[in-house]
């Protein structure tokens, strides 16, 4: 127990150092609201916790929403804006969940600190809290983002798709300052959450030769076919990590190694040699691999959350997260 505590302490310090090193890169800093709205982070945390207790599926929903926000116009809460032709209406975002959690937190914060806490920061904090509630370790989140005023569905093409090659995924990540390790680590967030059959059932029933995707484990294939029958409507949801769907751990990478990746783009992280070696790093010494994943995930989340953020006089602090002021 003592050894574990020491390891955990070192990891938390490591993440805190990573957070501090991220400060200044985009004008954000840890504790930005310590004077202007001291309860900001605790209110977001308690709000996410309340919703999580009613529905644990809210955690992967918020994590995915943050990812989708940062990949379009940076982390400026543009994905939260509703209306015709906004990001929310783009095909990759139609399945996003958790908007009500952000709205709930925003309402509470506006009541005690009107016009102070941005929707972009609420979403960033909520994604961290979601990971912690799912069993991951925490990290210090630099805050101070402001909200964007533009949200266009046409710009959602920057989001990686579920059939994309690793090269294409790496290009999209690199365009935003994220490297191949960030790609593997952040996709590892699929250790929690689900996807619909329509996004992978084509791998189970190859129409041209009636042969399934050969990268799928032969013993796993019948299970997936039973869950997603060929004549189904495709809306049934399946866990992305079939062994520990609600637990934030490194089991997702073991699934890739064993041919049990659900999405084609996920499984390619193992079949492509350029990312397989990174996946293998998270499958090292038993008992330590999961800890390494947690640490690297925190580092990559800090890095991602500083993509093209608006600070100072850029952007605004929205009164309502779904609409510009």
In short:
The protein is mainly α. Helix content is about 45%, strand content about 5%.
Helix content: 40-55%
CA(first)-CA(last) distance: 51 Å
Morphology call? globular
Q: Give the percentage of residues in beta strands.
A: under 5%
- Give me the number of helical elements: 12
The count of β-strands is: 4
Element-by-element helix/strand order:
HEHHHHEHHEHEHHHH
Main beta-sheet annotation: 2 strands, antiparallel
The pLDDT mean sits at 90
Strand order in space, largest sheet: 1-2
Low-pLDDT residue intervals, each spanning 5 or more residues: 1-11, 17-22, 287-291
Q: Which oligomeric form is depicted?
A: single chain
Explained architecture:
The protein is mainly α and 325 residues long. Helix content is 44%, strand content 3%. It is built from twelve helices and four strands; from the N terminus they run αβααααβααβαβαααα. It has helices at residues 2-22, 40-54, 58-70, 99-112, 119-133, 166-174, 180-187, 221-227, 251-257, 264-271, 273-281, 289-304; strands at residues 29-30, 142-143, 194-196, 237-239. The strands form two sheets. It has a two-stranded antiparallel ribbon with strand order 1-2. Strands 3-4 form a two-stranded antiparallel ribbon. Helix 2 runs antiparallel to helix 4 and helix 3 crosses helix 5. The longest helix is centred in the N-terminal third of the chain and has 21 residues, at 2-22. The model is unreliable at 1-11, 17-22 and 287-291 (pLDDT under 50).
